[in-house]
Design brief:
It is built from four helices and seven strands; from the N terminus they run αβββββαααββ. It is α+β, with helices and mostly antiparallel strands. A hairpin with a 2-residue loop joins β2 and β3.
């Protein structure tokens, strides 16, 4: 009986020490991880906005979207005038799940660039969405150019990554719907029809939460929603 009690005491002590160490490590790494993620996001914003002279992060705004989460936008300004905005888009129909990316749009509704923030696509195949050659084909595009926002395999303009049509299709559709979000919310994005200034702590100044919000592209809906573009269709290589 005494031996059982001793073993229980030892196990309890080990568990308590382990929990304490884990909590300490978590606390120690939480801030650096958050800082690294913010730096990554800021790099993406810098790469997709037109030339600006303000701080898009300080000036960020939260736009409410009916039936969805609010969307955080990062305005680029020059001489006090708005020259473009960046915001995060989530394509849910990647080969391995969500693909998060930042899109920059100028005030004429033209894509200035996209930067991939997070994905789980296959190394050597869908993961090539991060490569410049692939991302560059969306730069300079708008909702009217091209008329058919689709990859070549679906009769459109955009070139798929070999063996990764599903990943390519997901980015293409989500970029188009990101432009749709911009068009449909231009008044609020420009600040003439509301929106919420976001305080540095992450809460909007009027109480609306700002949780790193993004445009979630979902199956079968409106401007913040993507058609399910046959995400399970086999691609040329059959791998994705």
């Amino acid at each position: 009986m005494k031996e059982i009690f001793r073993l229980c005491l030892v196990l309890t002590l080990i568990a308590a020490i382990s929990a304490g160490v884990l909590a300490y490590v978590s606390e120690l790494t939480e801030e650096p991880i958050a800082k690294a993620m913010l730096e990554e996001k800021m790099d993406a914003i810098r790469n997709v906005l037109p030339v600006y002279d303000n701080d898009p992060y300080v000036d960020r705004r939260s736009i409410d979207v009916e039936g969805s989460e609010s969307v955080e936008i990062y305005p680029g300004k020059s001489g006090g005038g708005l020259v473009g905005v960046a915001f995060e888009v989530v394509a849910p129909d990647g080969y391995s799940g969500d693909i998060n990316f930042m899109i920059g749009v100028n005030m004429d509704g033209v894509v200035q660039g996209i930067e991939i923030l997070k994905h789980l696509e296959t190394p050597g195949l869908g993961a090539k969405i991060i490569e410049e050659d692939f991302k560059a084909q969306y730069r300079g595009r708008s909702l009217t150019d091209p008329e058919n926002w689709a990859v070549a395999k679906d009769g459109g303009t955009f070139v798929s990554i070999s063996g990764a049509t599903i990943s390519s299709r997901a980015i293409t559709t989500a970029t188009m719907l990101g432009l749709g979000f911009f068009r449909d919310n231009l008044g609020r994005i420009a600040g003439s029809e509301g929106g919420h200034n976001v305080a540095p702590g992450g809460e909007s100044v009027d109480g609306v939460p700002a949780a790193g919000d993004s445009v979630h592209v979902q199956a079968g809906g409106d401007s913040a929603t993507a058609d399910d573009n046959d995400a399970t269709t086999e691609n040329n290589g059959g791998a994705e």
